[in-house]
Amino acid sequence: MKRIIQITIYLLFSLSALVAFPEVVEELTIEGSINTEDMLSKKMIIIDSEEIGKLGIIEISDLFKIISSVDVNRRGPGKTSFDLTMRGSNFEQILLMVNGIPVNNGQTGHFNTNLTFAVSDIERIEVSQGANSVFHGSNGFAGIINIVLKERSDFLMGLTGGENSLSQFSVSAGSKYKKLSFGFSAEDSSSAGYYEGQEFDNLNLRTFISFSNSKIGGKLNFGYLKKAFGAKDFYAPYPSFENIESGNINFNLHTKGKILHRISFSHIIHKDSFVLDRYNHDFFNSESITNHTYLKVHNTIRSGILLFSGGADIEMIKMDSSTMGYQNQSRSGIYFAGGLKNPVWGLDLGARINYSTDHKSYFTYYAGVYRIFNDRNTLRFNIGKAVRYPSFTEMFYNSPANRGDPDLQPENSSNFEISFLRHFKIFNISISGFYRKQDYMIDWIRAFDESIWRAANVEENDVSGYEFVSEFILNGVRFKANLEKIFVVGNHNFISKYGFRFPELKLNFIYMQRLNENLNFSAKYIYKRIYETREKASLLDINLSWKLKGVNLSIHADNLLNSVIEEIPGIKIPGRWLWISLKYQK
Description:
The chain is mostly beta strands. The protein has helices at about 1-20, 50-55, 60-65, 390-395, and strands at about 45-50, 70-75, 80-85, 95-100, 100, 120-130, 145-150, 155-160, 165-175, 180-190, 200-210, 215-230, 240-255, 260-275, 285-305, 305-320, 325-340, 345-355, 360-375, 375-390, 400, 400-405, 410-425, 425-440, 440-445, 455-460, 460-475, 475-490, 495, 505-515, 520-530, 535-550, 550-560, 575-585.
């Protein structure tokens, strides 16, 4: 009843604003993405909302599974808890951004994916592989994922129901008045969970305002997340339970023209309440509040084939925890970059100095070149250096199953990548090779005869690999295939919980076909084999959707082959799920 009242109040407040300006919403150009930095020597992967819709994706965790170079390590079903990795990294080594603003949680990277919006709010996802920490600071160790949110909202209402008492209700609407656009969205979902003790109840609310004219543009986003879920076996072999609340505001203001000025600001409040044994609260429990404030000033000047950029940013992270005490850290950086760009070749150079109140300063850089041959072949080569500071959990968290280390050193890496892209008439192919030399990598490890996981700096763990991607489009059929192979240079005589828990071999296939004017079929298949384990799985999702006059009915099967795999030690992923979704859009 309390949840219904919350949603009703929110909808009434938002709808009161929309009624005042009932003008038709027009599509706006979205700025402020990774691409605005014009790192054309960097390989980019872009997934737009159209592709997301055709695959029938309703869960954020499923959304990332369609990105070739990104791997999803799930603890439970739906929106309970999942981590993102890329190219043999761990979940802490990925920089996650929303509208170009970092949202990595300073307490622990496990909270990075506690996102305050729904899949229907996403305009596109941009993925930049390899180190790219010049513009964005720390955490861009193995790659960057930038989620660009919609600045328009048609009226949308959706209902989903399925196995394991899965239910989801979503609604969004928006309007436009002259140069001003605004809207809201709300989504409520719950399930009894595939396994006992892994139920979830999730609420997302979002409101946005954007404006744009010939000289200036800006956008303001508010988001709220409330999530409760059974965390049995998530962090230790106990019937745990977790409550999360997160609220954020982010703001972008930019000018237009040859000289671009941009100011970005965000503030995130994240609350976490964790009980190791839900039937014995006194055994171990932890309550933490984290505040993360971010401010960035960026400037770009274009002059013919020359491009110059520079700026500065600052992050202030504060945590008040019943188990880790009061901790705070400030990080800042100053960066400069330049490039030469013309229709057939280009050069990118950039450098940054990173400062932290708890660690010494670090110098990072980026250099890349690209060459386009005959408008069909593109060759890219880049090198870069990145740094990542340890999280508060890695330094200070202690529980019956884990021991942090306050003396951890920041990890840093040197990255090398070469890629080749070939365009044909109806299909494209891309081949990439990379090498990441890692120093002081942070991982949770234990000896073979130990039961306690401890945070430690690990040596001799360089990573290399290659990736092959192809795409075929013809007569309403679209087929994408990806092969990724990862190698580890070095040996380790311990059990790794996260650092070496990645697919050493991964195959990814996506098939979409328009069967007739109203009927679409899509399927995605993933085969993965976890490094140095017997864990492997074939994961197949299919979706059949029918659309007529704004009504969309879809039937979805997740993990149709009912494969079982432990992507994280001791945690089996959810098995086969079936659901039906009905949406109305105007």
